[in-house]
Specification:
This protein is an alpha/beta fold. Helices cover 51% and strands 13% of the residues.
């Protein structure tokens, strides 16, 4: 299942390609390669064409969790993009948090034959966001500002950072664009901080309250939380029942899985002491 930040990090470089190119040290003119032109481009996170006298491809890959195959995946995309577009390709892996890091991520992949001979070497760039000072992001374009809270910054310093970001957005972004940028900031904050902390941090930002997308994300999060609570309640009910009545059958498990109201689950747990079997416990639901 795709996470909210997946869509956010495909959307931001598309809306602000120049800002993202500048973030990785590219100052030439760039354009977005249409993700529909090939399944390769669609599989990679974001692909930009650098329109210098000798054009080339910039491939950005975002990683939020550990992936032992990341280096090989980058090689795979790099080669296929080069073949597809007949241009040189530079791959950049942007690690969004320390959980994505690993000793194997050195910026270089060496492929060797069984006897040790190297038959292929591939180099790529690595950006570890949590090692960057926030000033490195604040000095860039507004399209990369949502990354700033994931940089090397303490919690007490975050409110001031948010105020600095708000000044930039108010000054440089259209209202609708500002809403999208704040929503992106909120989603990316969730990679590193609890939901309630992120809500509190952004509570004073006017456009966050007015953002339909932000409100939809909040509601989705509340619903996910409610479903997690229901799932945990069902699990406890089955565990308690197993001790009293024995292992539940597949039919019983399906019946319990179909209960959506927390009050019903609670009532069944209370009633468990007054009945002698799973069948009797669930009889009133039929």
């Amino acid at each position: 299942m795709s996470k909210p930040y997946d869509a956010i990090l495909k959307h931001l470089p598309e809306d602000y390609p120049q800002d993202w190119a500048r973030f990785v040290g590219v100052n030439g003119p760039v354009s977005v390669i249409d993700a529909d032109v090939s399944t390769v481009t669609a599989a990679a996170d974001k692909v930009l064409r650098v329109d210098e006298p000798d054009p080339w491809i910039l491939h950005l890959e975002f990683q939020a969790s550990h992936d032992a195959t990341l280096s090989r995946r980058l090689l795979h995309y790099n080669v296929l993009l080069g073949v597809r577009h007949a241009l040189p390709v530079r791959s950049v892996a942007i690690l969004l948090r320390s959980a994505a890091d690993g000793k194997h991520l050195t910026g270089k992949l060496q492929c060797k034959l069984p006897r040790g001979k190297t038959y292929l070497e591939f180099e790529y760039d690595l950006i570890r966001l949590w090692q960057l000072p926030p000033e490195a992001i604040l000095a860039g374009g507004i399209g990369t500002l949502p990354l700033a809270p994931l940089t090397k910054i303490s919690r007490p310093a975050l409110p001031r950072l948010i105020r600095d970001m708000e000044k930039r957005f108010d000054r440089e972004a259209e209202p609708s664009a500002g809403d999208s940028l704040w929503t992106a900031t909120y989603v990316l904050l969730g990679l590193e901080y609890p939901e309630e902390f992120a809500n509190q941090l952004l509570r004073g930002v006017r456009s966050m309250k007015e953002s339909v997308t932000y409100q939809a994300i909040l509601e989705e999060g509340r619903e996910e939380g409610r479903e997690e609570g229901r799932e945990e309640a069902r699990r406890i009910l089955l565990a308690l029942g197993a001790k009293r009545f024995g292992k539940p059958s597949t039919k019983i498990r399906r019946a319990v899985a179909g209960i959506t109201e927390p009050a019903v689950i609670e009532g069944l747990a209370i009633r468990m002491l007054d009945v002698e079997s799973w069948t009797e416990l669930l009889a009133e639901m039929e």
